Amino acid sequence: MTAAGTDKRLIVEVRWGANAGHKAVVEPGRVLRVGRAEPAEFVVVGDTGVSALHFELAWDGATCQLKNLASGAGTLLNGQLVDESEVSHGAWVRAGQTDFSVYFEGNTPPPSPADPESAERKARALDVLSGLTGPLFAVLDAARDERILVLLRESVEAYRSLYEGAQGEAMAEIAPYVVHLPRDSRLLRSLVQEGWGRNWGIFLSSQRPFRDVRRHLRKFLMVKDSANRELYFRFYDPRVLRVFLPTSWPEQNQALFEGIGAYWAEGDDGTSLLRFALKEQALHREIIPLAESPA
Question: What angle do CA 128, 142, 220 make, to 5 degrees?
Fold first, then answer.
């Protein structure tokens, strides 16, 4: 039975193990069974410590109940063996060698109300970005604000750190993340309403699958300077991107735009949205005003 007055979903994400980054979304009133094989709805591949049906999570829109499904190795909830227990927001569950995090969609409210003076600009930016016909992605810099990672973890959208493996886990709090943003995305709305004007990240369009977009963007995390030293390239900072693209070599832009339709970044004062695209191998910059000009 669904809790009255809520349509929040449950988010179950593999945080560590061979399936890191995989996510399942549970609608209110549904049960998610996790195991190594069907009929589990969330199948964990490659972990022999996970039983065919290991545990289940029941979600009513407000509370989550975990039940161990006759697994010989048992199920850990926040480090404790359990047969049945209520699961709180942000808890972690271990089955075999795989760690899962459990989040309630949109559980953590913004720390402070949005700036009413910028409401018009944010509404316009959201209209433009949500109205795009092609698939939209964002690259977000978790180092800018701890709120970014909260929003990602409490969202049903697919996201992944641009860092890999142990490095990605160790630097999770400050890593850049790529996220897919469907047109009706609640996350997109939150990113614009809370992050516009604060240089949280950039947006881009691509017809490529999420995996290919991430692989492409990872190519640009490191660059070499004139002394052949490797440096981090923060291309996902709008302050960097809007300066780099107009001044870079054509070959550099060709590489950055491979498989990418356009990049979007906030202007330096948050009153405009900048669109960068290649037309006949030349960079084209469009400035989209986000507020009406005074009469």
Answer: 80
Element (H, E) at 74: none
Tens digit of each residue's pLDDT (9 = 90 or more) over 102-128? 999 999 998 776 666 688 899 999 999
Please list, in sequence order, all residues whose beta carbon lies within 8 angstroms of the beta carbon of residue 160, skipping any fewer than 6 positions away.
21, 177, 178, 179, 210, 214
**For residue 285, which of 269, 268, 271, 273 has the smallest C-alpha distance?**
273
Please count the other Cβ atoms lying within 10 Å of the Cβ belonging to residue 162.
17
Q: Are 103 and 94 in contact (CB under 8 A)?
A: no
Distances (CA, A) of 279 to 236, 243, 286: 22, 19, 12
The radius of gyration computed from the CA coordinates of the chain, to the nearest angstrom, equals: 21
Tokens 């991107």 belong to residue: 241
pLDDT tens across 60-69, in order? 999 999 999 9
d(CA 201, CA 138): 7
> What's the pLDDT band for 15 if we cut at 50, 70, 90?
confident
Closest CA to 128 of 243, 293, 272: 272
Contact 217, 260 (CB under 8 A): no
Residue type, 220: F
Q: pTM score, two decimals? A: 0.89
240 near 263, Cβ under 8 Å? Answer: no
Half-sphere exposure of 75 (CA within 13 A, CB side): 26
